[in-house]
Amino acid sequence: MEYIFDFHIHSKFARATSKNMVLPELDIWANKKGIKVLGTGDFTHPVWFSHLKENLQEAEQGLYKVKNSNTGVLFMLTSEVSCIYSQGGKVRRVHLLIFAPSFEVAEKINKELSKTGNLASDGRPILGISAKNLAKIVFNASKDCLVVCAHAWTPWFSVFGSKSGFDSLQECFEEMTPYIYAIETGLSSDPEMNWRIPELDNVAIISSSDAHSPQKIGREATVFNLEKVDYYEIINSIKQRKNIAYTIEFFPEEGKYHYDGHRLCGIKLTPERTKKFNGICPKCKKPLTVGVMYRVEELAKRPQGFKPEGAPPFKKIIPLQEIIADVMNLPTTSKKVLQEYENLIKNVGPEFYILLKSDIKDLQKVTMPEIAKGIEMVREGKVFIDPGYDGVFGKIKIELPKEKEVSQKSLF
Predict the structure, then answer these.
(1) For strand 90-100 and strand 74-87, is the pairing parallel, antiparallel, or unpaired?
(2) Measured at the alpha carbon of residue 250, what is the angle toward residues 376 and 280, in degrees to the nearest 5?
(3) Is the pLDDT of residue 3 over 50?
(4) What pLDDT, on the 0 to 100 scale, is given for residue 400?
(5) Residue 408 pLDDT exceeds 50
(6) Are 355 and 220 in contact (CB under 8 A)?
(7) Is-contact 319 351, C-beta < 8 A?
(8) 258: buried, middle or exposed (CB in 10 Å: 19+, 13-18, 0-12)?
(9) pLDDT digit string, tens, across residues 341-369
(10) Which of 94, 229, 364, 374 is at a distance of 20 to 30 A from 265, taking alpha carbons?
């Protein structure tokens, strides 16, 4: 049976996150989305860790549920850390995601990591250790843990980042490389871009949301086909690169580091144009922020469009609230958009079912025809794309036929 997983989120104790990133809200929103297993995020933060221990109870081996909840949503203990250190004459900044099978193991990890940084300062703590040594600490706590390269291509904070990353997993993790079983695509890349790197044939390519607010959970996710859902089934599936049905992806152009450029100068460039300018901003004459697409081209050994044998497919989505807002020409936070979102969830089913599997004719019975058409167009990839760059999110828009005016059904 197919189950949707989102391993990477943050709590309200991480910087720039919503105060609503608390267990009751996460439980509700995961259920609305159709997510079976959600990462807790931030188990390294002492206050959040205590909150998790008090409010979760084990439901399956290594997986937890919110006490007194009947949503069926399960939680896995996960946390992102920021390793900042010097290696090879360069400052390295690598974000890593940790999976732990129990509170006891997570507590062991926290005890060791507290010696390398202030865990209470941020839900995503800065640690003065290498990625390799972080992996050693985690696996010393338990061989059943997992270390995943978070948003593997973002320029400033990732294993392959153009500003402070490495050219290979081997260069980063050295003798610990065989124990790194997965990388996360991040919002600015998709599996197809990663398939061009032969080294990544040896790891699972997974996707998660890195959500900072409840509504954003599931904007990327991984779908597993499992007979049984527990921590060890999930971990073994990742380690053996099996049972991954597909990943759910942002349009990578929407990520805020897809193209190259300078935000303050208003300069956005394709990799080809960046090469033409020798990586220098044509306006301020300083080095450009090189994005994910350029960095993939730099490290790729295979042509665009190459697909390794047996690689799981992927599906691109636009979140349902954004489709509704686009059709209504209103902000995603507007009352009318939220009402229509709840109408669809109530009458059709969870968001992922609506986006990926629902019958368009059935949608037309309960919502505006333009919304149903918008969902169909996203499935077909018929969208307008304005790529992101240098910290500016891209724009993915639905282009409905202009001669049609938005109907009034469900607007009021």
Answers:
(1) antiparallel
(2) 130
(3) yes
(4) 79
(5) no
(6) no
(7) yes
(8) buried
(9) 999 999 999 999 999 999 999 999 999 99
(10) 94
The tens digit of pLDDT for each residue in 63-103 reads 999 999 999 999 999 999 999 999 999 999 999 999 999 99
Amino acid present at 16 = A
Q: How many residues would you count in the chain?
A: 412
- The overall average pLDDT reported for the chain is 96
Residue type, 207: S
- pLDDT at 371 > cutoff 90: yes
Residue 412 has pLDDT above 70, yes or no: no
Q: Residues 239-254: pLDDT tens digits? A: 999 999 999 999 999 9
Average pLDDT over residues 15-26: 97
**Which is nearest to 253 in space by CA: 392, 390, 397, 388?**
388
Q: What is the mean pLDDT of residues 266-291?
A: 96
Task: Enumerate residues 6+ apart whose C-beta is below 8 A from 201.
Answer: 308
* Beta strand pairing call for 314-316 and 244-249: parallel
- Per-residue three-class SS string for the chain: CEEEEECCECCCCCCCCCCCCCHHHHHHHHHHHCCCEEECCCCCCHHHHHHHHHHEEEEECCEEEECCCCCCCEEEEEEEEEEEEEECCEEEEEEEEEEECCHHHHHHHHHHHCCCCCHHHCCCCEECCCHHHHHHHHHHHCCCCEEEECCCCCCCCCCCCCCCCCCCHHHHHHHHHHHCCEEECCCCCCHHHHCCCHHHHHCEEECCCCECCHHHCCCCEEEEECCCCCHHHHHHHHHCCCCEEEEEECCHHHCCCCEEEECCCCEEECHHHHHHCCCECCCCCCECECCHHHHHHHHCCCCCCCCCCCCCCEEECCCHHHHHHHHHCCCCCCHHHHHHHHHHHHHCCCHHHHHHCCCHHHHHHHCCHHHHHHHHHHHCCCEEEECCECCECCEEEECCCCCCCCCCCCCC
Matching residue, tokens 């439901």: 59
